[in-house]
Amino acid sequence: MPEHASVTLRKLSEGEIPLNIRGRLWGIEELSVVAEIVEEYWTSGRTKISEVICERLDWRQPNGWLKDRACRDLLLRLDSLRILRLPPRLSDGGGTPPKPNQGPDRLSRFDLTTEIREVRAFGLSLAKGNSFEPVWNQTIERFHYLGHRSGVGRCLKYLVTAEHDLLGAISFSSPAWMIKSRDRALASVGITPTQIADRVINNNRFLILPHVRVQNLASRILAAATSQVVFDWSMYYELTPSVVETFVEPIRFSGASYRAANWVQVGTTRGYLKRGSSHANSQVPKLIFLYGLQRRYRRRLATLDARSHVGT
Fold this sequence. Notes:
The chain is an alpha+beta fold and 312 residues long. It has 2 domains: 1-98, no CATH class; 123-308, Gcn5-related N-acetyltransferase (GNAT) (Aminopeptidase), CATH 3.40.630.30. The protein is built from 9 helices and 11 strands. The protein has a 7-stranded mixed β-sheet with strand order 3-4-5-6-7-11-8, with helices on both faces. A two-stranded antiparallel sheet has the order 1-2. Strands 9-10 form a two-stranded antiparallel ribbon. The longest helix has 21 residues, at 217-237.
């Protein structure tokens, strides 16, 4: 039995029950099951706890996969509301989470040095809960300037490959919170602030490996990935996204690949970074690009004048 105080539910008032979290109503019976599982698997980690909850409550995607990420959102929400207490995050023994590139070197089987200048065909492999995901994590950690960060929320990752070559990686996640110029642009095409969380996704990582030098490859990957993610996101999260966003640091990149793939620049961020409940000026304003995932949104976005949103 783990050495900790027993996990119990805070007494909930009638007005609080049921709770509506991640599109599911949570009554006292289901919340009691959650609390029991947190107690039973206290030392096994939050991921294991979420998997067991999904199995016992049969919380699954239409394709049968467990909704473990949604369940982790639920657990964090319950913890923030002080309804129950979560165990501390697992660490590597030194008090810090283990880095994604620890363990076997999963990139060693690829030649990442010989220059590639021609690709006739490439493919996208979903890296989600399978053997491709550690490869994606290590690729991003080693070669992307932002590295790999484990986050809470919706996320789909893809490896970009050609025959036996690894070309790069791309991923999509939940959208950013409250950005005035982006929100105004989305409102002009019919997406209100309350709809953004479910109808907008964020292209949060995009990498072509340094030894890959294929003309127009970036825009081709963007076109293929934005087409594929609509289907996969709908299957995995039961939501069909309408628009995808991304943020480009102009001191590093020009955004030419996004423009070539018909993304529209709708403004710039103000350079503020959210830390907890506060915002700090990070001094790195970014270019905001949007792309319509259906034709009607592409047409509406194409009519926007980016200059009218710049600097807001």
